[in-house]
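Much of the work behind modern protein science is quiet bookkeeping, done one molecule at a time. The protein below has been through that process, and both of its lines are reproduced in full.
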Amino acid sequence: MLVISGPSGSGKSTLVKRLLQDTRVVFSISCTTRPPRPGELDGRDYHFLTLEDFRARVERNAFIEWAEVYGNLYGTPREPIERALAEGKVYLLEIDVQGALKLKSLGVEATYVFISPPDLATLRARLEGRGTDKPEAVERRMSKARDEMNEAPRYDHIVINRDLEAALAEVRRLAGLSDSTGETGA
């Protein structure tokens, strides 16, 4: 299992999209109680659940971890992980720092990789360049990023995303995907 996290704007989602071009990689689709953003689809981006359904799944121990982030609940479903690992696949979780460190503290075996921006100025430029967040939201994300970057040493590996191709090659190496077997295109 490969666990990837890092601050919003670090490039982790772009890296994940590239990793998913490899047929040996299965992506974890998290569950959330937040509403879908424009363009997001249930079952592709997240499993969008009601608060009641989410809580019922917590009671059934259907998540390997769950947490509240920005006032919404997010959880990692247990069953798809078990299925992918039984098939010999790399199960990829893109998860927030809080969730990753919770998994690590629970002893969940995985390669934990923190994706870091080169510096906070670059991160700010990326967040502002998206044009999706109001200035207050950018400030909130920057504050959270500072806290998250302080947790980076708790991960197995830190990959600084200065150059997307170099960062991708490093993450592929760490995941045991360095050869081209399973590649469906780049």
Remarks:
- The chain has one domain: 2-174.
